[in-house]
Design goal:
Layout: H1 4-14, E1 20-22, E2 37-38, E3 48-49, E4 53-57, E5 63-71, E6 85-89, E7 99-104, E8 108-111, E9 114-117, E10 126-127, E11 138-140, H2 148-156, E12 163-165, E13 170-175, E14 179-180, E15 191-192, H3 195-204, E16 210-216, H4 220-227, E17 233-237, H5 248-254, E18 258-261, E19 266-267, E20 273-277, E21 280-285, H6 289-308, E22 316-321, E23 333-343, E24 346-351, E25 368-372, E26 381-386
The structure holds ligand LQZAQKY5 and molybdate ion (MOO).
Amino acid sequence: MISLEEARQKILSHVGNAGVIEVGLADAWGGILAEQLVADAYYPTADRSTMDGYVIGGDEVPGTFHVIGEIPAGTFPEIPLGKGEALRIFTGALIPQGGGRVVMQEDVTRDGDHVSIKAFSENRFIREKGSEAAPGDVVLEKGTKLGGAELAILAQIGEVRPKILRKPVVRHIATGSELVAPDQIPGRGEIRDTNSNLLAGLFKSLGVEISDSRRVADDPQAISEIAEGDWDLLLISGGASVGDYDFGAETLKRLGFTIHFDKVNLRPGKPLIFATRGNQVAFVIPGNPISHFVSFHVAIRLAVERLAGLPCHWNFLPLEIRGGEPLRPDPRDSFWVARVSVEDGKLFVTPKSWSTSGNTFSLAGTNALVRVKSGAPADGVVETLLLDLPESIA
Ligand SMILES: Nc1nc2c(c(=O)[nH]1)N[C@H]1C(S)=C(S)[C@@H](COP(=O)(O)OP(=O)(O)OC[C@H]3O[C@@H](n4cnc5c(N)ncnc54)[C@H](O)[C@@H]3O)O[C@H]1N2
Ligand code: MOO
């Protein structure tokens, strides 16, 4: 049995990203940029007005100026401005040759073809050419996650086919002869399959879809047939332990996988199996729902983050316990489902009650995991892995 830290190291050293693809802007949201991007031109491309008003020749204010025409946005000002002259200008329009300052229309008096400026701002209301970026300036770093702001930057530099990391193709197999679909009434000895929906939701929260999810009985031949394929990540739910009907490790060996670990000093989630075959990654996840939840957050998520190039989230906050279930000391490195809340601007953590790792209901409202290492104090201030923003500060 290895420690969780060793298990995470093995995942880091055996999992790489799933490769690079080129996509259109409309499909780039949520992607991880696979290249550094630089400005293709000066931004702004020329001096531009930041206000609706008048651009004057030179910068001699106050004074009265002869209005010789106008420059709407989208036009190129052919007329150079001389001293004593002004042009009507609009926000975003190009400053003509000779233009030294824009005065807001609220600060002028217009009389026929003359405009008189008495009060004026220190601000010249001109966005200067190249003041935001010059050709070759880095505007987005490799590894940036593309949200709305980043898509705007791509649009700005005309990068309409960005290279992003390919999202991994994920196959999930829920094994267990006792499993029935959630819309079925379980017969004697049967239970509804909850892990398929649990994992689908956990993966969605990372922006990765499980493209193929099936249920299969504890039959090694059937499991192997469904497991074979050209996916990037295979998740086998159940069959991780040592019972006569636990076929996870056997399936992976039969398919030519190398098993890197099959037991972690972890509670819950001890019989977690991690294996690879070339670039393909597989986990057999201990069947209990809380074991699924914990193994996902402490180990599987790291592999997904690596495959998809996502930033790694493994930051523990020291939080004071407030109420909830007393934490029971355990020889294993334990993770307790918990809820973090905010009171008077301070974060607190409340461990939830979970009798066994089979108790799906105890996952309700969980937004954190409390880590209690073997021999560490299980009260007072505890190490807390925040999984989601507490509602009051979200
Ligand atoms: N002799 C030993 N027995 C067990 C050990 C051990 O070290 N020695 N480890 C225990 C621990 S810890 C865990 S965790 C479990 C893991 O068992 P498996 O991965 O083999 O899982 P199963 O036996 O298939 O299922 C366990 C439990 O979870 C239920 N289950 C399975 N799949 C689903 C699903 N899709 N949705 C809802 N519930 C599911 C299943 O019915 C079982 O109740 O092994 C211990 N045993
Ligand atoms: O490791 Mo198991 O997940 O405790 O029940």
